[in-house]
Specification:
About 30% of the residues lie in helices and about 25% in strands. It contains 7 helices and 16 strands. Helix 1 runs parallel beside helix 6 and helix 3 crosses helix 4. The radius of gyration is 18 Å and the shape is globular.
Length: about 290
């Protein structure tokens, strides 16, 4: 930790430190949350996977939208970042019908105001990707909202810019993932404004915590899919009959090992790097 760094906040996964008036340090722990509850069991190296993948994507999407990354530290889990004024909405782009999107579709045939064709099944590919915003909950569960509500929160012109940027990021990442045998089913972005009022990508980007990654060679619409993300832990927690409130359940060793393996495999497939090589030299993801 840098001398003089001041701890300012704890998130579900990250610890946030102020380095000075203009810079923050985001340190990704190995904590894991499901259904917005932090579980008591950590997943070894998870924070390094999230940090490395975020840095990898930040380095490759700068032409689409500026991002907050200033430097990747050699611990492999810490990012020095610009301070931003974060927008009060999370931006989810869905290319496939899964998770809360599938739940909303079953209940009313639409997702966050997007009317979808009748007869879709779970995990179906959508006719085109859709942007589905959600409110940011300080505690408890985030809530899906529609574009009109998002525009009321951030302004219509800004929301139109957010939608354009989010769809461009999704398209870029989905093409990259597809070439490596992975389906990017959906992903969440968080964006903010710098001092000049420019839209900037912040937080993390296109990681197993913020995305659904499915192996393309096993894709079979009509139900849940095998995944490289935290769905493996979600499925375990749901099998317990847990009510999805704090405290969360302990995770057994086999599920911990299986989760770590999935996160590492996603990292290696998407970056084309051996995870051990990243641990030895984190800067490799920026090259």
């Amino acid at each position: 930790m840098s001398e003089g760094a001041v701890h300012v906040a704890s998130g579900k996964v990250r610890e946030l430190y102020a380095l000075d008036d203009d810079r923050l340090l985001l340190v990704a722990s190995d904590r894991i949350s499901t259904f917005d509850v932090i579980l008591p069991t950590e997943i070894p190296d998870k924070g390094r996977v999230l940090t490395g993948l975020s840095a990898f994507w930040f380095a490759r999407t700068r032409e689409l939208v500026p991002n907050h990354l200033l430097a990747l530290r050699d611990d492999g889990r810490s990012l020095e970042c610009r301070r931003l004024e974060m927008l009060p909405v999370e931006v989810v782009v869905r290319g496939y019908l899964s998770g809360s999107g599938w739940k909303d579709y079953r209940e009313g045939g639409s997702v966050c105001g997007h009317e979808l064709p009748a007869g879709l099944v779970e995990s179906d590919r959508l006719p085109e990707p859709i942007v589905t915003p959600a409110t940011k909950a300080a505690s408890g569960h985030d809530e899906n909202i529609d574009a009109r509500t998002a525009a009321e929160l951030v302004g219509a012109e800004r929301w139109a810019e957010v939608e354009t940027v989010a769809l461009a990021l999704y398209a870029f990442a989905a093409r990259h993932a597809e070439a490596r045998g992975i389906i990017l089913a959906d992903t969440k972005f968080e964006l903010g404004l710098d001092q000049a009022g420019t839209l900037v990508l912040g937080d993390e980007a296109l990681t197993p915590d913020s995305s659904r990654f499915w192996p393309a060679d096993e894709y079979a619409p009509g139900g849940p899919q095998p995944s490289y993300d935290k769905q493996y832990v979600r499925d375990y927690c749901e099998s317990l009959g847990w009510d999805k409130t704090d405290p969360g359940p302990e995770v057994p060793a086999d599920v911990v090992a299986g989760t770590r393996a999935r996160y590492v495999e996603a990292f290696e497939l998407l970056t084309g790097l051996a995870f051990d090589a990243y641990l030895a030299d984190p800067q490799t993801v920026l090259r």
